[in-house]
Amino acid sequence: MRLDDHPILPVERGKNLRFTFQGKELVAHEGETITAALYAAGIRVFGHHPKDGAPQGLFCANGQCAQCMVIADGVPVKGCMELVRAGMAVEPVEGLPELPVPSRSPDLGEVETIEVPVLVIGGGPAGMSAALELGRRGVKTLLVDDKHRLGGKLVLQTHRFFGSTDAVYAGTRGTDIARRLEGELSGQPSVEVWLNSTVLAVYSDRVVGVLKENRRYVQVVPQALLVAAGARERSLAFPGNTLPGVYGAGAFQTLVNRDLVKAADRLFIVGGGNVGLIAGYHALQAGIEVVGLCEALPRCGGYKVHRDKLARLGVPIYTSHTVLSARGDRHVESVTIGRIDESFQVIPGTERSFACDTVLIAVGLDPVDEFYQAACNYGLPAFAAGDAQEIAEASAAMFSGKIAGRKVARALEAEDKEIPVEWERMAEVLKSPPGERVDRRPPETEHGVVPVIHCTEEIPCNPCATVCPQALIHIEGEDIRRVPEFLGDSSDRGCLGCEQCVVICPGLAITLVDYRQDKNFPTVTMAYELAGETIAPGDRMTGVDVEGDELGEVEVTDVRTIPKNDRTVLLKLRAPKALAKALAGVRMQGPWASAPLPEAAEPITDAQIVCRCERVTAREIRDLIRRGYRDMNEIKAVTRAGMGACGGKTCSTLIKRLFREEGFAEDEVTPFVQRPLFVEVPLALFAGAHTEEADDA
Known about the structure:
The protein is of the alpha/beta class. The two termini are about 40 Å apart.
């Protein structure tokens, strides 16, 4: 089903388009992908694998795999990348699809070749920032992105960004940053943008092949290449890992925040990094129950403020736990987790199962850097930015793109200034992991209005310190990773109660305690970004502390939704004086949503799938490793692992992990040889055919 409203995102849809799936008429909206339209109609199985009949569904929603392949008007396409057209006939892939019989030879034409000073691959935060730097210097630049709009992962982020307000728009929502960068880019006449265009390969003659608008093949000859293609999500091998409903957190965010589709009713998250934690929060914003989150390490690796937001809203977080299996007939119906010891071995008797229809895998990212590596191998001047250079937050990607753009300009002699030392320093700060956690005591002040800062971990973030009109929130020194402090009685200035710090805090980690009307029952103001109409004055709610532990009952006295707060709702709660400073949130999800099933599901004996495209199991690959195989290409030849449509993008990391588990270091293993083409494409296009003609070839 589609979302009718969202607390942050505007619900705007194009005109209705009618298409069919298996002969049944469905309705999509203009600009909607096949995958989004099918999910909105409740369809999660897109076909069955020819090897074992396993149901196939969505996994990455980013064009990096082929799990969502369908037959559209007789042509195999990736449903997550193909937009619905009026009258389109979509069919599932059942077994090996039959190739269309050509009705005539295609009309072949000349392949266009263009020369540009700079080609930028990727229109996300890094690519747009780099193109802006080049555009401001008048460098003719071509930016190519395979999506139908710019922004990359920015368009999926409803939360306000961390980092520096001056350097990377900290305190502004990711979706708004995407629109801002896109607007600035449109004002650069030297920058040309190709959307719905896929870079296929970098060749040895330093030519880059591009499928322009997914219709015709163009050869681009750049003087310099800047790769900002982002990252692909890592997979995880466990029984049931390829069931429809098991997919990447980024795919979930794409469906919910870009396509405005309610992609689940009940979900479970595997992975406690920022991606998994943020995806859980996005689910709650979309009205989806989050059954729980498990993390193999003793504590979540993402920002603690992200973890705390979930815990305060009632989501259980199981650290030192791992996923054991997903179960279901045609799609996910339950998930089983278990506690692990210091050696990451499951402790018998700790297994628990939960009813859910979706399992999100958020266990890390791999850089999409194959274009960069190929360019370096062939002597094409190349630069990388964002996740293609180093996996980090989107704020870091923006700044690394800015630096990369300046470096490219210098290489082309369009810029004669050195990269400022403070830029390099800021880049290191923005991509730094969480630092020390500090013990924080609430301010002693119990009069007037008192801001209580609930973040206790060093992360790069300064919006609260920059927005306070009284300069009462302070970060010591120049390092924005330090925890902010309220100056309190040490200052001769008092808090005005303007609420700006509460609104702008990316972690929703600041509350205001107002003693002016009633010192014994002060008013606590906090940010709230779920559906505002679910709470009304007079409601009595369960107040919780920063960790999500119950404090007691509090009364809602006001719900403020004013334009200047930029879609952040402010709750005002009447709380006993003894609880007021500890009060950090209200519980929204009851314990029934996350209760485990009465009994843990029996272990599944089916082996884990490592290669999704060819349905190759971990057992098959382990057997070959133990027989002496050390070359992944030999394993490919024997098992077909890595030979599928995705070109080994998903399984290569898992196979390397199997080698590590068997005791072999990375330098003892020969990796896959990359294909000349990094993305699948009809061969007729290389001879100058357009896609309509190539489809008949």
